[in-house]
Amino acid sequence: MFLGLDIGRQYIKMVAMNKTKDGYKLLDAGHRLVPEPNQAFDPDKIDTHHWVMAIKELLRQQGLNPKKVKTLATGISGAAASVKQITTMEMPTDELESAMTFEARKHIPMDGTDAVIDYQILGSNDKEVDKVDVGLVACTKGVLNTHMDLLKECGLKPGVIDVDPIAVTNAFTYLKDMPNDGLAVLLDIGALSSSLVVWGSGQQYFTRDLPVGGHHFVKEIVDKKELSYTEAQDLLYREGVSSVLKNDSSDDQSGLSVAERSVFDNLIEDIRRSLRFYAKQTGQSFFLKILLTGGAADTPGLTDLISSKLNIDSDILNPFDGIEGADSLSVENPSQYVLAMGLCLRAGMEK
Ligand SMILES: Nc1ncnc2c1ncn2[C@@H]1O[C@H](COP(=O)(O)OP(=O)(O)OP(=O)(O)O)[C@@H](O)[C@H]1O
Ligand SMILES: [Mg+2]
Q1: Same-domain status, 189 and 258
Q2: Residue range(s) defining the domain that contains residue 27
Q3: CATH number of residue 226's parent domain
Q4: What sign results for the dihedral spanned by CA atoms 170, 172, 178, 183?
Q5: C-beta 237 within 6 A of ligand 1
Q6: Does ligand 1 come within 6 angstroms of the Cβ of 11?
Q7: Is position 96 within any domain?
Q8: Is 334 touching ligand 1 by the criterion CB < 6 Å?
Q9: For residue 194, how far is its CA from the centre of ligand 1 (angstroms)?
Q10: Do 266 and 328 lie in a common domain?
Q11: Which residues contact 295 (CB under 8 A, 6 or more apart)?
Q12: pLDDT tens digits for 51-107?
């Protein structure tokens, strides 16, 4: 059995699959809240102890015996790691190794420990001779060790340690056929941040962490409607974007100033800026679709709002679509499992 475990800041998600002759068979999927239930989610109050408890309880809840797991895959968040596509001179392996380490240090939040890197030569650059494109992934030893210690504390044997945005991309490429032309935009909307990926076959890979997530959606409703956290959460799940965008008592006539922009406008503005940056860097701007993943992707009205504001088709990605065994499983919010699915697929690639 292969296990993908997504250790989110509000929910732990797991997907377990077996390999079949021509793909994968879904065995189980489940999630568990990290903080205490029925309370306002306060990210500052979450520590290692909460994650360890939640992971152990999730495995127990799903009746999963860790000993039966052939390979476990977990991920480092996009905020703690760097994923970059770099163009560099062709050079011998040892030189490339130190050039990449040097490069990585510029992009990751350094914490006094060394950088850990992994890279892959993607091929020769199609514009400049003598240059190659390299995919570079990096984090610090401190981040990696903390992650491994957490897994060991849960009684799990660390296996593949992936990086979240890459795992989301892997899930997407497994599930959808990517046309030869054009770019897909993936947006994993978690609790505290969203991870944006721009990807296309033969195109520059780009990812960025945007500082808006479902927690901020809820908080805005708390503030605007003077509701408790759980009431606001219920309203968000029920009415979605309209619970914030609907006119309330304040008059909405004059053009909205920046301070009055809704949390959804801020998220969309962040996406717009990132796509503009991508287009400027690469000269490519044929964005085919924005696919939402993560727990907050299910916010009613969000895909419509995104498509109308950015003029790019938008949809929610269901990781169980077309997967054998998925029919017998009932999950409330499939998009929340995309990362866990991507991690599980990554575990399945290990020999
Ligand atoms: N049905 C729903 N509609 C809208 N939002 C939802 C729904 N279900 C869950 N959410 C929101 O999704 C978020 C949790 O999603 P997810 O599990 O992807 O986060 P996480 O991985 O724990 O967080 P992060 O990625 O920031 O570490 C919460 O903010 C929650 O309120
Ligand atoms: Mg997440």
Answers
A1: yes
A2: 1-80+142-176+318-351
A3: 3.30.420.40
A4: negative
A5: yes
A6: yes
A7: no
A8: no
A9: 10
A10: no
A11: 8, 10, 11, 189, 190, 191, 214, 333, 335, 336
A12: 999 999 999 999 999 999 999 999 999 999 999 999 999 999 999 999 999 999 998
